[in-house]
Amino acid sequence: MIESIVSYGLAVGAVYALIGITYNLMFSASRVFSFTSGMLGMLGGVLGSLFITKFGLPVVVGLVLVLVCGAAIGVITEIVTVRPVLKSLEQHLYVLSTLAFALMVQQLVAIEWGTDAQPFPRLIPIGPGWLDQQFWLPMLACAATIVGLEFLYRRTLIGRAFVAISEDSYAARALGLPEQGLRMASFALAGMVGMLAGFTGGEMLLAFFGNQPTLNFYGFVPVALGGMGSNRGAVIGGLALGLFQQAANFLVGGIFAAVAVFVVFIAILLIRPEGLAGAATTRRV
Amino acid sequence: MSTNLRVVTRRQVLAGSAVSAAALASGFPAPAIANSDPIKIGFLPALTGPSSSTGVGMNRGTELAVEEINAAGGVGGRKIELIVRDTQSDPTKAVNAVAELAQRQKAAVIWGPLNSGEALAATPLIAREKVPMIHPCWVDQLIDVKKYPMAFRNAPTNQQIGAAANHYVMDVLKLKKVAVVSDTTGYGTASVDAYVPMLTAKGAEVVFSGHIDAANPDLKPDMLRMRSAGAEVIMPWSVNAGFLARILNTRGAMGWDVPVVGQTTLGSGQTKALLEKPDYWDKVYSNNFRNVCFNKDGKLPARAQEFVERLRKSKLDMGDTLLWWIAVGYDAPRLMAETIKAAGSSPEQITGYWNQLKPWPGVYGDISFTPEQHNGFPDDQVIMCEVSSLRDGAFKLAPGYGA
Amino acid sequence: MAVTDPPMATRIANAGRQGRFEFALPWLALAVAGAGLPLLDDSYVGVIAQRACIYWILVAGLNLVVGFAGQIAIGWVALLTVGAYTTAVLTAGTVTSAWDPYLALAASGLIGAVFGGIVGLPALRLRTFYFAMTTLGFATIVTQVALAWKSVTGGGIGTPGPVFAWPFEPGWGFYYFCFGLAALATWMTANIAASRFGRALVAIRDAEVAAEASGIAKPRLLMTIFLFSGALAGIAGGLFSSLQSYITPDAFTFDLSVLFFIAILIGGRGSILGPLLGTVILTVLPELAAPLVAWSTFLYAALLLVIVLAVPGGIADLLDYRNRRPLKQHREIAPRTELLPQLLGEHRDKAAIVLSDIALNFGGVRAIDGLSLEIRSGEVHGLIGPNGSGKTTALNVISGYYAPSSGRLTLNGIDLPFKAPHRRAGYGIARTFQTPRLIGGASVIENVMIGGTYDGEGSFVEAMMGLPRHRRDEAHINAAAIRALETVGLGQLATVRADRLQHSELRFMEIARALMLRPKFLMLDEPAAGLSAEEIRRLGALIKAISRAGTGVLLVEHHADLIFDICDRVTVLNLGKMLAAGTPSEIRLHREVVVAYLGS
To answer: Do residues B66 and B150 both lie within one domain?
Structure first.
């Protein structure tokens, strides 16, 4: 029982953490919380199943295609739902534009792909048991993403440009950094991370349109608790959430586990609205 | 003046009498009734949404039947117009659709809804609109001769289904410790609520009973709890192929060798497609219906065999659904057409005919109704089949099962 | 103003009367159409109409939360669920003895209010997106509980809904019941929208700091709205359970939440008619063509995207003809300071705000280091210094946004509380902001009336029912706002949308709003920024007149000329420390000031 909680909990927690990182990447670039994070995760599973199972492509090709789609969708998201809104005075409208876009895609998938969960292909023939690759693939993806992002931010010029834009976009623009291009690149990167989450988590979550609201919520919890923009917080929060959820599943059963997660989440936020690791809000006046 | 009275009188006579019925049957037009108009059958399947697998399957049979009837000239020269309204597995849409079918479309009769949750909401409204209806949902509360005198069921009730499954588990497999589980839909929860007392009354020990969210990807915790409670058999009740497949996959991954006895969807092509290993389908027994299963000699009953031939000819896909869904979808419009041909298309005529229905030979089942009993499916036609014996959409009877 | 222009009050009254007719026309049309619907004798239309009325009852309440208060409450179907089950379970008699349906409906309203409060609680502390997520979580939880609590709700099987007796029996009788309640809900929410509560909600949404500075307590107002909205949703739920005849958890889909939410945004925030039309359109849309049913949620989302990108103001914006009329091009702001005594009141006691040795740290930075100054009634006290010297910070301390690390802040010897900026209005302290805080979508006079919120005496319920005390409040606030606008010289722009004003006009508008509080002390944060030389001159005259009418003015400014022209005393800050303090002439000659700030 413990192995099941640990293996499944960490694995699904890694998926949540990756979705959290997706949120963070989009937030850092634009101060926008996008409802498309869960959508990207859902599409990772659906497109993966489409390419590998339905079209019969090899696993690696399928993965690459999925990532390319992720980048493309990320860029489309930025152009259609974020850029026009940031220009207007009513900045909070981004909540609505990203929500609308995410809903449209979800309904499209429901109608075209179907409302039943479809099988996701077995990626590597290792397992079953608690060392099954369906468990450690997401964790591997999560670790690789974190390492990759750290490398990007610290060692590459473009990564440091990302950091500059997120810290102080005015100053960055004054220095001549192309804010728009960098924002598009950030969204493309976020798209890829989101798709990766859904792809590596596909064997657990299946290719199912209903994953979108689930991932939206459970991917947001690590961000809310770990602090917006903090990837480390997202990973810790995601893994903790996965373990807590699995333990609750064992102890009280599925329905009440969801209630338990939610109640704890609300309680923490009410006590510390900025999250467990976040900074207090900036000057308003 | 006197002419009018005469016409009125004649109309009344024609409307009520056997003369009228004969006239319709032979296709001679009677003057006061416009009978080149199509016969409108309202159809309320859930073609999209979470509970759409039954709807999609039944829809295939229904459309085939309507095509065949119309190709053969319709009912006494009148074509059948099937007015389909997708309920999207949503009771609110079902209610809207009923209002449209009854009032706008003036449907003569309604077939559906096909899911219990929608039927629960739609039946009272259909009754208020005084439209005769047939539906195939299993939830017991849906039929009530007093509250809904025009509602009839052409499929078994939950009681009948549960009795057959429980009989197999206790009397054939001779197992006592049972885990009963369902998803969280109306149908699933109603089933568990009905079957647990039935099992206990029969002397079984229900060591585990519960409802699991079908979207939950990990069933290991619940299955481990079942095992540690000492369950000797798992009885799942759900129409969700993903959920059922996950139960079978988890059982296989755990290496837990217990039989699974439950809902017919255990045997659907969708469920099979979601299995991780083909042998996870072993030792799985589901409800099914005698008319569409292979008998001792490995043959389908004649009616079903002929039906399957016709399906193959019209290239109807059976691989991802269940034969009995297509069959019950096929039977309903045919029953309705025969009724209207024999008795007329007013509500009283239709329900009057149904209330006297002697076993009507459907592909799916031999349906009969009385004024006190609107559940039309016979007890002895509910049987258990062995799911892994799937061939051409049909199954063998389960081992140890009476002939 | 030209001699031929009729007096301001008459102009606004005339515009109002005309506006009232235009305003009344769509409502009359809807009322006639709704009342006459049974004549069609089409029960299908009846079912759809009942559904639209029920949804509108919920959306009318949600409109105040989303459209007016700007809270992104997406999971509102949770309250419909709670209301539906409450009525159904109570009338079914499974848990208690069977209740009368009307009483059960009232109970739904009560329980809906309670849950509305619970769902709304996070809004008081969380930011927009966070709150949106919590509402989604609530919707999931309520559905799960409905499924799990079999003994009460019937679990997945559900429970039968109530049947109301004649004259509201199922069919057209029930339709009239729903229509009547929908009309009532419309009337109540329209009353609130037109009241100071409605304006305050919009102020919280668009200009939160300005709302606080005007004395509006956000938590209390938001909680009231959530309770009210929850009650409406609960009643809508009870009616829903009757329409459905039988409710199961799968009837309460996320799609419904989407419908409610999008109807408001399509209709336009801050409007009642817009969301009503939006609700009707979205309810009817899927019925227009059978294939639309499957695509309905996709269409709703697409509509939302189009609205957000193209017409963020929604239908209400499209219908807003008045604000498309062109404005006069070269407008002058001509304050009429002789109206000040009437506006501010005649007999005013002397008072003083005293800062003693205030120090404020932000982390390691000492933003203010030992500031002492006095703002006295009848005087203009100037506060100048380079950027980053702590001027605005000092103003924010006095306004109550920041608590000093040490030092005292007193008003006539009483310590002022901190971290409670909305309480400053009660002390007679008003302010303006460095960047004008306005409600762009509201008219100028509505913006100014925000300043009158604090003085209102009528309660929320009285406003909701349009009772006399509330109407008296409104008349007073309206008259005071007109007077304030004429005082600052913006009278002729009263009915214009605020976001069409020039920057300088917005600055004067903020002063008008602040004057509504009849402040003992007025604090101005760089009011001359962006003004032309002539406008600065008139601003100076206005400020001076305000102080002479008995108000103590603190003027934070960059424009040295303005400071030296009108200030009685001046304090100079540099890097958080007081560099000099005294009369303007003293300051002008002060060597350090000259070097650090004015240049030689």
So the answer is: yes
